[in-house]
């Protein structure tokens, strides 16, 4: 690896002050509250997992020109959703590019502001909406010894620092880019689904006491990758993205998922 990296970090509850109380009407006339998509990470886990309220999912995937995730990684993300959520109406991905916001590296607040300025899909009566942003810069939380690859920061929102991901993949001794993207995307969405102990209740004692809201099984997708940088290399060394372990799956099933 080029750098020692601390990856798959999570920011929850930091951006609630950015929430709006405005209502948004879509073209069909269905009214949905923007505020329903600006809640704490993990708080909408049951809505995302079950079909009790929402019968389908739309993913609004927005990337800065030149920083589009691979098609395979997007397909892997959809497969992850299909494997763990009940959405008989299906899962739709709407993908588009935007110009660079021009203010990288990004603070959490700037990432939220980009969403606020560009997001068009919000929950409707029977469809839950997800915002996924692929950024053209780094996080301001990066240091000389660690970098952040992704952050889940609201109940239906996450960012992938795609420039950083691309800089740490597809070179000798580095992971395949699709593999790294898949790992980061699904890990961050695991937090949005309430893992680990972040809105989806534990069915067994498997939260890492040293790294809150992460699984203590080192082969699990929700394991905390250490700041030494060995973690992510070990997680993807087998040539495939890590999967949720049985305990995390049990948690999701108890909260309405598959």
Automatic annotation (TrEMBL):
Keyword Protease in the entry? The reply is: yes
Q: In which domain of life is the source organism classified? A: Bacteria
SUPFAM superfamilies hit by this protein: Metalloproteases ('zincins'), catalytic domain
Give UniProt keywords alphabetically: Hydrolase, Metalloprotease, Protease
Q: A single GO molecular function, which one? A: metallopeptidase activity
Q: What is this protein called?
A: Membrane metalloprotease
């Amino acid at each position: 690896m080029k750098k020692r990296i601390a990856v798959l970090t999570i920011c929850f509850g930091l951006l609630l002050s950015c929430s709006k109380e405005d209502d948004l009407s879509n073209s069909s006339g269905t009214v949905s509250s923007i505020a329903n998509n600006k809640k704490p990470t993990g708080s909408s886990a049951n809505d995302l997992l079950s079909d009790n309220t929402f019968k389908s999912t739309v993913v609004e995937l927005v990337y800065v020109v030149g920083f589009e995730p691979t098609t395979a990684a997007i397909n892997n993300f959809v497969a992850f959703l299909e494997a763990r959520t009940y959405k008989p109406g299906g899962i739709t991905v709407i993908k588009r590019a935007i110009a660079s916001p021009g203010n990288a590296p990004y603070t959490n607040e700037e990432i939220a502001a980009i969403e606020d300025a560009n997001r068009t899909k919000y929950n409707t009566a029977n469809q839950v909406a997800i915002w996924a942003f692929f950024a053209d810069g780094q996080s301001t939380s990066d240091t000389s010894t660690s970098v952040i690859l992704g952050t889940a920061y609201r109940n239906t929102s996450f960012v992938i620092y795609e420039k950083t991901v691309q800089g740490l993949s597809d070179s000798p001794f580095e992971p395949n880019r699709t593999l790294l993207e898949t790992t980061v995307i699904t890990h961050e969405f695991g937090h949005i689904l309430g893992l680990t102990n972040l809105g989806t209740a534990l069915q067994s004692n498997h939260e890492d006491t040293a790294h809150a809201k992460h699984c203590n099984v080192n082969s699990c997708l929700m394991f905390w990758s250490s700041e030494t940088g060995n973690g992510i290399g070990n997680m993807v060394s087998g040539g495939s993205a890590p999967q949720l372990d049985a305990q995390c799956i049990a948690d999701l099933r108890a909260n309405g998922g598959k």
